[in-house]
Amino acid sequence: MLNMKKRITLMFFLTVLGIITKAQQLPHYTQYIINGYILNPAIAGIENYTDVKLSHRHQWVGVQDAPVTTYFTVQAPIGKKDYRTTATSFDMVGENPRGQQYWDNYTSARPHHGIGLKIINDKTGPLNRFSAFATYAYHIGIGVKTSLAAGFDFGMNNLSLQADKLVFDPNIPGAIDPAVGSAQFINKIKPDLNAGLYLYSSNYFVGLSIQQIIPQKIYFANNQLTKYPSETVPHLFASAGYRFFLNDDVSALPSAVLKYVAPLPVQFDLNMKLQYRDLMWIGGSYRQDDGFAAMVGLNISHTFNISYSYDRTTSGLNTISKGTHEIVLGFLLGNKFGDWCPRNVW
User: Fold this and answer.
1) Which of 2, 42, 57, 323 is the most buried (most CB within 10 A)?
2) Which one, of 268, 333, 266, lies nearest residue 305 by Cα?
3) Nearest to 209 by CA among 154, 152, 132, 155
4) Secondary structure (DSSP) of 68-95
5) In terms of C-beta density within 10 A (0-12 exposed, 13-18 middle, 19 or more buried), how is residue 163 classed?
6) 8 A C-beta contact, residue 21 and residue 219
7) Which has more confidence, 82 or 152?
8) What is the pLDDT of residues 140-169, one digit of tens each?
9) What CA–CA distances, in Å, run from 189 to 78, 130, 192?
């Protein structure tokens, strides 16, 4: 008989193998609405400062070997000169710096470049995925208030399996799952490519991105027991959002994301973010057939912000999981215009 700890480990190992072979293979993020760059490389360089994000996500707290995801992203513009060029273009005392008048005066981006870096570590039980990507993007105005950006990430994924964690029967020392043979640590490094488009204006955005473009075979064994390898598959993300004002101090920003990973059906997320001036925001999210999330964020200064989300799953795991926690720290470097919150990413 397997003890409870090993049963849970086995359950997650089989679950993750299922994810790798036929379901979403990349990490989930709840707060992609404040760091769209994590899903779409075209967003790199969209603001007037260097945007740094640090995030840690602990999924299904209370469940042994549940996914834990940590990432670091940094992205910045090159040659961006389309914002606040005169003394009168800065904020007026007593006015909402992100009020209706601000957006009425919004103009599209002048042509410029964007660069970035993503480092992501996603661990589930004995499996660990480490990714690193360099990003290039180009932004150009195509209308009075409308801009279009295109970008790509190129980098690598390092997928590793710590086989000595697969000893499911404690009564048999060294009894490792036969699917991985005698290997103690299986390590695979693969190249990867992501690409995206992002159309944005003062009151809406539409994005399309594809991740894991280069299909790769994944062998978890070093012997002949596994005849058929797993394979990475592309992940397609389509996003859209719209901004409207409830009053001059509070804006509402509904958005949605569609996700497609063959051969699964399309899955959607629905989000709502309410922002008070450029100081703080609250929000909620619904992920189809998965659960709900609540979010809150605070812009502490023009160089630092923090946000937090809590997810509650509606799947069978809700009987043993204490929910999912995700925190994001943001740093605005080289912020010469004193922005307290993003201008183009919501």
Assistant:
1) 42
2) 333
3) 152
4) EEEEEEEEEEES---S--SGGGSPPTTS
5) buried
6) no
7) 152
8) 999 999 999 999 999 999 988 776 666 655
9) 31, 9, 10
